[in-house]
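Task: complex structure prediction.
Instruction: return structure tokens for all chains below.
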Amino acid sequence: MTVADTGSANGDIAIPDEVARNVFIGNIAKLLDPLYNWSRRNSIWPVTFGLACCAIEMICTASSRYDLARFGMEVFRATPRQSDLMIISGTVTKKMVPVIVRLYNQMPEPRYVLSMGACASGGGPFKEGYNVVDGIDKFLPVDVYVPGCPPTPQALINGLIALQEKIDQQSIATAPWYRKDDPTAGMLPVPVLGPDLVDLRQLDIIRAKAADYEAQVTESAGVEAAAQA
Amino acid sequence: MYGFGIVKGLGVVINHFIGSYIDDLRWAGKGGRYYNEEAFNVRQSPLGEGVKTVFYPEEKLSTPERFRFVPFLVTDDPPPGQRWGHDWCTACGICVKVCPAQCIWIERAKQPNGRPKSQPEKFFIDIDMCMNCGLCAEFCPFDAIKMDHDYELASYDRSTAHIHDKERLSKPLSYWREISPKKAEAEDIARKWAEAAKTKKRDKDGEGREDRIAEVAARQLYYKGLYY
Amino acid sequence: MSDIILEPTADAPGPDVELTPAQEATAKLKELHPNVLSDDTREGYEGMIVYADSITEVAKTLRDDLGFNYLSSVTGVDLIEEGKMEVVYHFYSIDRGGGPVVLKAQVNRDEPVLPSLVSIFPGADFQEREAYDMYGFNFLGHPDLRRILTWDGFAGHPLRKDWKEPFFEEEFKPYGSRWPDGQVFRVEEKTPYGKNVQYPPGWAPTGEEYDIETDVYLGLTYSRDATPGLKTDKVTVNLGPQHPSTHGVFRMVVTLDGETIVDLKPVVGYLHRNHEKIGERNTFIMNMPYTDRLDYLSSMSNNLGYALAVEKLFDLTVPERAEWIRILMVELTRIANHLWALGFLLNDLGALQTPMLYYYLERELIVDFFEAASGSRMMCNYMRFSGVAYDLPDDVRGMPTMKFLEELIYNNLPRAIDQGDDLMTGNEIVRARAIGVGVLTPEDAIAMSTAGPVLRASGVPYDIRRAEPYSYYDHLDFDVAVRYNGDIYDRYLIRVDEMRQSLRILQQVLPYLKQTEGAPIFGDKPQYAQRAPRSGESYGRVENPKGELGYYVTAKRRSGNPERYHVRAPSFINLTALGPMAKGHKVADVVAILGSIDIVLGEVDR
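Output:
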């Protein structure tokens, strides 16, 4: 008897020897994964999307001295619909973040986000600024962080290699983008600009805090009225 | 003549195209043009011709001495069996006071009687805020904080990897000497001068004041710019 | 330094020397408007305080009668202690050069209303909008007074001194929580929403505020065709903020009639990173690395402008070698910046990638030199008050520095510029797309306060290095590049000319660098916490590769932080001319016109 690792959720299945000799039994994903990942990791197309200072280093990385074409990444696409990777290259401001989330939503899966530089990762030196988002990971799932201000082209390539390594770890069998029944599952709510940036996932908290405040005001007004009476 | 401008431009492009092969041939007898350190250095200098690509990660551009990436703390070379030696940092807080992004946190150690001790208990740098400006290293009076040359810091998770604590930051003096030999040597000399100036002060009170000032000035000069 | 290489210049104003143009104009202005002008008598301040309602008349006299026809900078200042706010204007004379005439209009803090200058100086348009956005000044008569850097609906005017950001920790840096008991924290851990946000107390979203885009389209002219026959509608199209040809997160709202542009409004602020608010919390030295991130292609020039402003305020002198190194760095920056700008401009004109890649290869060498000298490729942080941070390095890429520079200045860069000339200048496609497109007349160029190559390509030979020389530029022999047609092609050519002039300057600087080897590179000992020795204001300006970069810095005596820190950003103000230049052209030309202005969003939005 052979115990085959099919990778299926039902667990291992016992298979008679005579069948095992003649029929392929095994993990198809394990066979296909290297091929699948090899082709994906060597053709990651980024969006033509520069935000700030880091974008200059990103362009330098793509130009002839560092030559991203060696990694199959030189095809910067101007539309998110043809690209696999979004390099958040620079400070994300509150005014810009709705656009970024919308672009991310338009990217087809599998999609990756690389946060380049201190600003994109955590706000950087501008973190305290009133118009700065303190880290794009508050709005998008980030795959690789590249520290530096700005990261040199070599540091960026190092990050891209890290992304390739991450892709190598993924498997068709568990890839989330094949498992979704709901087509809008990968869509993130686009934040809104009100008096300040509003994350729609936090609406309940915001409403609760506003209600708290109202209650406090009425309460203190009531106390005052009582004191006056 | 109409079209002449385009033809002239195409000539430039063809020149580049052919030039890249000519340079390949030139290096063919000398161990090849790629993955060859000598050829690589020429290729990256102003004398380089043809293809100038850096084949990172196989080839890496050397970082100059003054290169600055995220800071680290200098400690003495560790005694055998230990990872770190004595901290150079005295928790004086100058790096904190000059840091533009305010990304450094220092907790000063305390003596048993509660008095402050000139040593850091904890030391944090949030590299998500650090702007690699190098002011901390420039103004540190004890040569204790320096800018690192290690730029390969990509990570998958910033919550754990991006706040560097004292353990992560501390690196031995030998590392600093390795990445920045001339700077480290100049600092050694400057420190010796400062020591000498101190002993002189103890020897003759009041006398030799000018010498001392001149030496401190020379140290400043040496320290700040002339040699590294 | 034993021997002085340079003769001192004879521009030190003695008592018998005739008045500078600015002093002359000031005196005349006081004669003409005696009732509304008074000298600014605060310690360390210059210029005159104008009765706010009369600013238009005074400005008109300045422009028409006194020749001060260039409104360089308009900015607000919050004088919270006096309950006032003031608008500071810097006027310059294009014909006569020299220093500025500074006017200040003070208004009540609760009701900041004053007339707009847009009708006299169209270049005030964006700057007044910025002052409105940041301080809440109500400029009467401004045609389009909307928020510019933040968005419509934003709560408050952020640069007012009593406005606090969500991550507010303390009024001034350094923060007390960092030392001696610094326990690391992320600021978001301390805010109620875990993010850098705050809402007015009691505010809850209703759903209406989501429709924020309407304000953007308000300023556009839009009319139905009233003539009989086939009706065509005009279409409004957004270019950006994510667009490969907008050079960053820049957005243009364009009204089109077919392919022709009827109206164009730039929408900026997508990279507004609060440079000035942070700058007013910082100490003086802390702002130096932040200036790198303004125009991130030419950080050395930004450093120099800020250093000049603060040196003026602190009364510091710079040793000779440091000045030569500064000029070396700044001119190399100019070349690096123009190489970048031309690469992108040609890219926009359809020469996709090839010229760009060739130019960037040469730029990499300059960047290598910066890296060896300052430690970083782009964010140099190299200048210090009264000097530079380090001397030149021993070697660059394994080559002695002077040899490297000689190689660069005599060989590589001239070759690259000539090669670019061969490659593109005569190209018929480029010529067809660039000649006669996006014309800016000299009158408009001055009126709209454009600066740098945009101004000079329109036939106005105004270069701060000549008009109000700083550093050692008055000792150097170079021509102010000027072209006369004011179209895209001239703006392309002028950058090539300027690079050649920069090379000329660099060739003159090299011998001085050799002569001064070993000399000190800073005057006074640089300190980590420098305090202003006197209170006062200063305006330092340099000819950045993009145009006039000015820093307006004020400080109180013994204070370690600037009280007001304003950046007059050339790319931002040059954008005023984009709309008028693009009108009547096709959509495809807009991209090229924008490329020819050469903006950097870090500086536009700050």
